[in-house]
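testing teh design pipeline on a random one, pls ignore if ur not involved
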């Protein structure tokens, strides 16, 4: 992300704390914020009707959650849960979209921001392959 894009985000960032197994979003929720985990780890899960809970992705310090909202998908198809409690930075999706647009305008059609979002976010598709199965309720595994 370009320095000018970071400058756009900076005034909108707010530090938040997530508790253990804290639900962040549920399937069908509108993505209104983008999260940059610092010490927390966010799990994107898809509870199955038989009680199993496939984990679709884990997003930690290296990732961004909710960035798909910047490319037009404003709804999540998975449940987001704080797998590991800790801190994250939160900003409105609209501010992230403005920063993303700035990054695109700086001559980076496939910017590092886009690659990072694309690689680390699977909240758009309920068909994402599962990395492992867990037993129990989605918010309490």
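output:
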């Amino acid at each position: 992300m370009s320095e000018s894009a970071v400058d756009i985000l900076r005034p909108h960032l707010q530090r938040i704390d997530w508790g253990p197994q804290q639900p962040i979003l549920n399937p069908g929720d509108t993505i209104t914020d983008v999260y940059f985990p610092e010490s927390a780890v966010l799990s994107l899960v898809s509870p199955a009707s038989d009680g199993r809970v496939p984990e679709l992705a884990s997003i930690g310090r290296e990732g961004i959650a909710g960035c798909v909202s910047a490319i037009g998908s404003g709804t999540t198809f998975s449940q987001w849960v704080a797998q590991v409690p800790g801190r994250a930075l939160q900003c409105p999706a609209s501010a992230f979209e403005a920063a993303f647009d700035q990054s695109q305008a700086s001559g980076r059609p496939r910017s590092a921001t886009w690659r990072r979002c694309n690689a680390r976010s699977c909240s758009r598709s309920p068909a994402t392959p599962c990395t492992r199965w867990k037993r129990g309720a989605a918010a309490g595994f």
